[in-house]
Amino acid sequence: MMEITEGSHAVAEAVRLSRPQVVSAYPITPQTHIVEALADFVANGTLDAEYLTVDSELSALSACVGASAAGSRTYSATTSQGLMLMAEVVFNAAGMRLPIVMSIANRALGAPLSIWNDMQDSIAMRDSGWLQFYAEDNQEATDLHFLAYKVAEDATIQLPAFVCFDGFILSHTYEPIDMLTQEQVDQYLPAYNPAEKLDAKDPMSFGMYATPDYYMEFRYEMDEAQKRAKDVIAKYGKEFGTLFGRDYSALVEGYQLADAETAIIAMGSICGTVKDAIDEMRAAGKKVGLLKIRVFRPFPYEEIKKALAHVQRIAVLDKNISLGAKGGATAIEVRDAMYGSTIPVKGYVLGLGGRDIRKKDIKEIVSLCENGAGDQFYGLRKELI
Amino acid sequence: MAVAVGCRARPGKSRDNKTGSWRVFKPVFDHEKCSKCGMCRTLCPEGCIHEDAGGFFDPDYSFCKGCGLCATECPKEAITMKLEEK
Lengths: 385, 86
Fold this sequence. Notes:
heterodimer, A: 385 residues, alpha/beta, Rossmann fold, 15 strands, B: 86 residues, alpha+beta, two-stranded antiparallel ribbon, 2 helices, 4 strands, elongated
């Protein structure tokens, strides 16, 4: 059913429909509306879950780890500093192979303090073993939660998942959402029933210690599960499309790419701006296309290489910066994906700490890329440096 | 044997964890000097020193971490720590 809903409330409704048994979260801007709505659902009886009001993000995710290990479908949401406070548990949840789903309302990291949007928070956790989905709009942010649970809980994957959507830009924006019904979600997402769980009648330990003789093999198995997740996302993304008409089988999605000379690569809400800019550039005779990355972990190396084999140049937009490296995380990985090709890959770090990116900026970046200029911050205020 | 997903284990699995891999120096027991007092078995923090049929003591190298406590405390200096090549 179509409804006009705030992004955070659409995500909260998607979580409610996913029937989590334990919700544990600590409010933080701009994630707050999600967990407020979930607290209401539990209080008014429309969500039959244990809602834990914890003292911090560290406790929030720790409680999810315990609840997930005990066999519950669990949910949390956070952003920015909250995710950093969780960091230790983020890695442990993945290492214990617990399919927790957590929404990240992407926000910049301090210092300096910023409550505005970029993607530094979830990108900083890219080596933790969590699957990472990125939404372009609130419809996608909503749907990706169902897909995330389905993939994370698959017996061959057993990894937790971030569903990332841009703080404020999406979380606080009202958009029309085609919300699934409970019957539809139940049809797609069966109850979580893990083969192994914490049970006093059948004791078991999770995440034991491993000596140097064993540790590496655990990390290898996690990496293998990440790689397997590509096919599992394709399978369940396609199933979602068959059932509900929106196909999420592809880890990357092209827009006007078929005859593009310049390809832009981007993630999240900026893709909408890029598409509008492309429409205008196309009308002016410029062959520009977009490759949207929906899944950052596992990273779609082969998919990118295949989709962009025919273009003349690639401009990668990053709302994050790997300080001291060559630009943002996406550009670095795209360069690796394109290794061996002669197509130039130029990175642009932009929009950090909530700086607006408009259509004119996308057009300017395409011009820079055409002139071979890139691997730089875009939109710096020179007078401040 | 493949590792368990998520390093999960049922009770009693610590016996599978062969801590002998931690060892750098290996205690070597000289039965000629041994007076069978059993001090090494009493003090071994790993509990891996056992008495044999003849009343002598020997460590289980699968679990001995090579801490050297037995060698330091042996009243007969019957235990020497030797660098182990791996």
